[in-house]
Task: inverse folding
């Protein structure tokens, strides 16, 4: 069954630790996204990718980094976690046609990772 | 940049009553519009989308939305809600020449038995 997965679902960690949030999709989608979601706030795009070896920063600046070595995998890394990184992180994917055409296909979302940094 | 405004952060409604969740956007160019639903501890799921054609679009679970270009609105409606409709609802927009979705702050719908 085609789906999008995120692990871990919940993570509580101390300040200064390095963490990687995993995101995988089995739909063969080229485009993938990372959003940050806080209560009562809009979803903020922090990273996206058009495909393998492509990574772009979104509107919201983030101290995190991403990589796209395989189509199905789009991990997000925080080198040194801080309490300000406490949030919910949502991964999504969508089909994509080409770099110069509109990308308005439906985004499929994972269940999210709720990160708490103490 | 785009902006999406969801005017109501919380909407309580009795079961079987109608509901409207409001969404307004700002854009000087053509846009595509979406409504997503998020159930507790789950990711967002697409309810419906407007790309072109009829301004009244129907989605899953009996929801529908009407695109009003002059009022730059895309309000979501359901004639009779169920307990299972209790969730967070997000409006989203993307310019037809853009590559980034912009989401509203969400509306928490609570259906009261």
Result:
């Amino acid at each position: 069954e085609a789906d999008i997965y995120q692990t871990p679902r919940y993570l509580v960690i101390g300040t200064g630790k390095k963490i990687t949030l995993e995101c995988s999709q089995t739909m063969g989608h080229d485009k993938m996204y990372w959003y940050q979601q806080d209560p009562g706030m809009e979803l903020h795009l922090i990273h996206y990718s058009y495909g393998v070896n492509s990574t772009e920063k979104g509107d919201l600046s983030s101290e995190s980094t991403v990589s796209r070595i395989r189509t199905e995998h789009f991990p997000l890394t925080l080198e040194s976690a801080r309490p300000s990184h406490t949030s919910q992180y949502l991964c999504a994917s969508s089909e994509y046609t080409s770099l110069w055409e509109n990308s308005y296909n439906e985004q499929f979302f994972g269940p999210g990772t709720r990160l708490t940094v103490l | 940049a785009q902006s999406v405004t969801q005017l109501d952060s919380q909407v309580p409604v009795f079961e079987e009553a109608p509901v409207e969740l409001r969404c307004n956007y700002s854009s000087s160019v053509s846009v595509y519009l979406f409504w997503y639903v998020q159930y507790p501890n789950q990711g967002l799921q697409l309810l419906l989308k407007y790309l072109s054609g009829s301004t009244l679009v129907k989605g899953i679970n009996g929801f529908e939305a009407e695109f009003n270009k002059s009022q730059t609105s895309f309000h979501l409606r359901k004639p009779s809600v169920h307990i299972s409709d209790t969730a967070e609802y997000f409006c989203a927009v993307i310019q037809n020449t853009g590559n980034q979705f912009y989401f509203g702050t969400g509306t928490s719908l609570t259906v009261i038995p």
Chain B has no helices and twelve strands. The mean pLDDT of chain B is 91. Chain B touches chain A at residues 1, 4, 9, 32, 34, 36, 41-46, 49, 51, 90, 92, 94, 96-106 (CB under 8 Å).
